[in-house]
Each structure stands twice: as C-alpha cells, then as structure tokens.
C-alpha cells in the first residue's frame, strides 16, 4: 500500500476555501488550546502536537517586545522564533515528551496505512513561521533518520 500524502494548511484558508488540499484528506489540527470555531474547521485535533504552553507564551512575549521596537507583526513573530530558540526547543519537545511521541507514532501509522493528512493550525506560513512545518518535516523523514 502506498503511503498517504502529508500536507499543511491554516484554518483561515480552509474556512475561506482557498486551501489547496486533497478532498479525501483528514484535517488534523495540531493546536494545544483550540477555539470552538477551530474544531468546526478540522476533523480532529491533537493537542499534544501543539507547542508547549511555556514556549508559546515566551515566543508571544518576545514578539510583543519586538513590535514595541518597531517590528511589524510578521517580522516580530519570525524574529521571536530566533530569539527564544523556538525550532530547537520544539524539536526537543517532540523527541522527549511521551504524549507527543505517541501522537507522532499514531500519525506515522496512519500515513503508512495510506491515509492522507493535512496538518492545520492558525498561522499563515506564507508570512509567519509555524510549527506545522517542523511537524511535516518530522513526519516526512525516512525511518532511519
């Protein structure tokens, strides 16, 4: 059986029908604290794959400080990632947290069984960095990596 496809999108693109995702794909939210309307846009949500609350809060605080220094929203968001070491810390979380590991294994099994998945959260990645991209890379890597 062929491995399922793996895409990523953001909730506003889905809600406004501008997302280019396979119609048969399962929309998997990867948000730690989703809003009620987020649940209506996805088929399921896996909170364990959202960034940890402390990392989100630290990144948000850094972005707010950068905006006060004159950065626009997108620049502040992206610069805050560098400032707090978001990518390396999120990858470490994925490697060490038992719930995240179980969730990753479950998604890998679904992909291996031929199911197509779309990872969904709030960020528009044409302008802002997002943990979905890290998840997609993680789930796309070869088993020996």
UniProtKB/TrEMBL annotation:
Domain of life: Archaea
InterPro entries, per database record: DUF488-N3a
DUF488 domain: residues covered: 22-140
Name by which UniProt lists this protein: DUF488 family protein
Organism: Natronoglomus mannanivorans
